[in-house]
Amino acid sequence: MLTLAEAEKDDGAKAVALGNLGNLAKTRGDLAAAEGYYEKALTLNQELGSKEGMAADYGDLGLLAKTRGDLAAAEGYYEKALTLNQELGSKEGMAADYGNLGGLEHARVNMAGARAFWGQARDLYAEIGMPHRVEQLQGWIDSLDG
Question: pTM value?
């Protein structure tokens, strides 16, 4: 996809391909390569003015930072993604961001914060009709009580 996008000079497709390559590198455990791909995708999406793409890239960078144990950096990325998804009115994107922020609070052993963010995510998923995600989030919330 990257080769085709470059040949066609399609920076939007190129940004998507770079993000996907970042996901693949992260899955393989090559966090440095993943970060490079995500940053290149973010730069392209910023140049294109693609808030959707930027939100996805910030989310990916946040997950990467959390994987590395850099919770402060993860929080910053998640908040940037959330702000963009709020501007876009993307309830699914906001729900994912609240879910990520809840996971961050859980990692910090702030169960009240985790519960609050996961509750927001659950409620947004309910609004948009994603019952499997509602069930997942409710399971996480319930696990905090046990």
Answer: 0.93
pLDDT at 145: 82
Which structural domain range is residue 105 located in?
91-146
**pLDDT for the residue 143:** 96
Low-confidence ranges of the chain (pLDDT < 50): none
Mean of per-residue pLDDT scores for the chain:
96
Q: Tell me: do 96 and 53 sit in the same domain.
A: no
Q: Rg of the Cα trace of the chain?
A: 16
DSSP the chain: -HHHHHHHT-HHHHHHHHHHHHHHHHHTT-HHHHHHHHHHHHHHHHHHT-HHHHHHHHHHHHHHHHHHT-HHHHHHHHHHHHHHHHHHT-HHHHHHHHHHHHHHHHHTT-HHHHHHHHHHHHHHHHHTT-HHHHHHHHHHHHHHH-
67 and 98 belong to one structural domain: no
9, 36: one domain: yes
* Chain position carrying tokens 């409710």: 138
